[in-house]
Amino acid sequence: MTDALSWTWHYDGVILLTGILCAVAASLPGNFLVLRRTSLLGDAVSHAVLPGIAAAFLLTHSRTGPILFAGAVVAGLLTALLTELIRDIGSVDEGASTGVVFTTLFAAGLVLIVQAADSVDLDPGCVLYGALEDSPLQTFRMGGLELPRVTLTLAAVLLLNLVFVLLFFKELLISSFDPGLATTGGYNARLVHYLLMVIVAITAVASFEAAGNILVVAMFIVPPSAALLLTTRLSHMIWISAGIAATAAVMGHFSALILPRWAGYRSISTAGMMTLCVGLLFLAAALLSPSAGVLTGWVRRVRLSLRILCEDLLALLYRIEERSGAREISTIASVEELSRKLLCGRRMLIVAGWIQARQGRLTREGDILKLTDTGRREAALLVRSHRLWESYLVTEGVGRGRIHRQAETLEHYTSEGLRSRLDTGLPDGTLDPHGSPIPGEHDFRSPPDA
Amino acid sequence: MSNPAIPLSIQDLTVAWHRRPVIWDVEFDVSPGRLVGIVGPNGAGKSTLLKAVMDLVPKASGRVEIFGQPWHAARHRVGYVPQRESVDWDFPVSVLDVVTMGLYGQIGWFGRVRRRHREAARRALEQVGIGELADRQISQLSGGQQQRTFLARALVQEADLYLMDEPFAAVDAATEQAIVEILRSMRAAGRTAVVIHHDLHTVPDYFDSVVLLNMRVVAEGPTQEVFTRENLERTYGGRLTLLEEATEALRRREQRL
Fold first, then answer.
1. How many other C-beta atoms can be found within 10 angstroms of the C-beta atom of residue B8?
2. 0.90 exceeded by the pTM?
């Protein structure tokens, strides 16, 4: 396996680790960006740190060191401050003012970086895509060990973000949910906001070189958005988002190893693949989320309509028995006839018949459908619910012409308890408004020719 | 001047947005153990008044004292119930989490939420009659239940002065009754509540005193004396257009170079 992928620990292992660290570090503060509905600020700050980096670079001629981080933090704070300022004085919405600020700062950064690139090696292309593949090559010596610099920086940032989220969980929660209450309770919501911006800026800077802009921006926003689809608890959301981020990094790395061979490319950007993978994971969450998933919703609807059809089929057979007195129905049991009566497609009806036969509620010989005793008992209860509802609706003053349609829906959601409460409230519990007998709860009607 | 027995004392308070006054020269005192209604048309500055008291919006001038102290020193004695629409009800937290937030002020920075805090929150939820909803996600609540959640969050603070921004807005009759009962039991316990209210019919029934506000205080005092047809006409009627005209002229003047 490792052979087939041409996997080597000291090379691929470091790339993968760097990717995971970057993804998870970004996803942690990203949760609060998403919940504050300021997702774009993550994007903005990760672009706006560029002039900070470039300025620090021009000053120190180095791509590392505390000055670089200081420059980035200043730029990040500046973004947050300027965004507020422009929103207030320009009377535009937050999104527009964010757009104004970060594009301007980013452009300024690009101008500065070209200046810088003449004298030292800093590549504007690296700003967007990063150079995750180079991370194992940039090492420094410490205590006799050759250590990858970027990877260690990101590990430190992940630790910082983890401590930040755990230590300030309460403060982040209250200031995100209700800034007014936070401020009156002594937690200055603006202060918390700026703290979050500092963390976002530090994360963006640390990831910049290795992962580039796109991966960081994606990891700030996409894993938390996917996690929000999967849970209703903030603490769970944070861990799930971290898990999604890490999974996307692993998937991305391996697809970057495998895909080029299939497609015949020379190589694929690892950071790009990781970003693509996190997008795919979001798609999966959007389709499969237990509460809000598109696919889960569809399955739920189909299952519900099938259940209702299964019950309607039983009730229909029961009524035919009741009317004709016969225990088997061959005359109208043709699929076309039944599907017309039950207002459903042939295929659904066949599935419903098959399910009910499998569960022992009816038997089928050729064209003849017969209720079994179990089936008849259940059908009697459904018909009982239906007729109780009709009687009840009449006492509530609903017109006779409308009671059948309503009872047809309600019968499928009526428990034994509800039936007995309906029954006790009725003046006459034996006949429904149309004059048909209401089956008892326990003694289902024996067919006359038994 | 400062009297530690007076829950809320507002002197000469003016708040302005972009130089345009929202409330002007507001001045009144609230006596302890009373339910005070703040009544006035839309845009009269009712919410702004409460926010200015809590330093949530900057004051252009004036002074606010809570039990004889400035806001920041008496903050812990005040419970705030913001408008229901002011928060995102799809936020991934449970009802209990929201109520527990009322205690964050006591817990303080870096402090942890402990079991006794959550138990206090549960008791407050029982008090407002939705104890069984404690572990629900807040997006599943009806409007009335949301308001009860906010009320529980205020109760858990055990404050001496409550500032409530339209707690009766768009709630069902049962919730309205529950809120009124809670307000009355607060008053019985010697607490004070200042409540922004919209439904004029219920004012004499619910409140001991009223403040009729339309940018400035039109009238304030005991409900029987102040809540008169004449005063209401002055609050909601046309007379204030003169004041509005003046502010409009002021604003236009500002825009000219």
1. 21
2. no
